[in-house]
Amino acid sequence: MDARFDLFENEFGARFSKRFANAGLLIHQSPLPKSTQELVSLRASQINGCGWCVDMHTKEAAAAGETAVRLALVATWRESTVFTEAERAALALAEEGTRLADAHPGVSDETWARVREHYDDDQIAALVSLVALINAANRLAVIVHQRGGSYEPGMFAAAVS
């Protein structure tokens, strides 16, 4: 399956992508730990079946020093021992925030309480924004059939600069 459309080659798509990337840059510069940002982005992308985003966030995390074991276990984080309690709270929020239609309350009070226990207000604002942004990015890439496999660390930043 080939990509249907290249957003970067279209004038409107390129302008939108730059603004979208600026929102991502703001999150990247937040006090939310970078490893948590990549794990959350990876998990939401796995759920949404976004090969491009799974490829990107796996490679960006590895380039930043994340271990292969932790990356391989993100999809099964509940049954794994390699994640901190704070990371587990963030991954739970990412899953519940991604699967809104699958649960009546959306994000459960229990998950929210765990997030509040481990993150301050600025980190929570970044985490909530990240979950929203990665879900939007997943939808963009899946709709246009942007396939995974060719991403190189830093490539997206260069494409939208």
Automatic annotation (TrEMBL):
A GO MF label: peroxiredoxin activity
Keyword Oxidoreductase: yes
Chain ranges of the Carboxymuconolactone decarboxylase-like domain: 23-96
Short name of any one Pfam family annotated for the protein: CMD
Keywords for the protein's UniProt record, in alphabetical order: Oxidoreductase, Peroxidase
Domain of life: Bacteria
InterPro entries: AhpD-like, AhpD_core, CMD-like
PANTHER family: 4-CARBOXYMUCONOLACTONE DECARBOXYLASE FAMILY PROTEIN (AFU_ORTHOLOGUE AFUA_6G11590), BLL7811 PROTEIN
Protein name stated in the entry: Putative alkylhydroperoxidase AhpD family core domain protein
Organism field: Streptomyces himastatinicus ATCC 53653
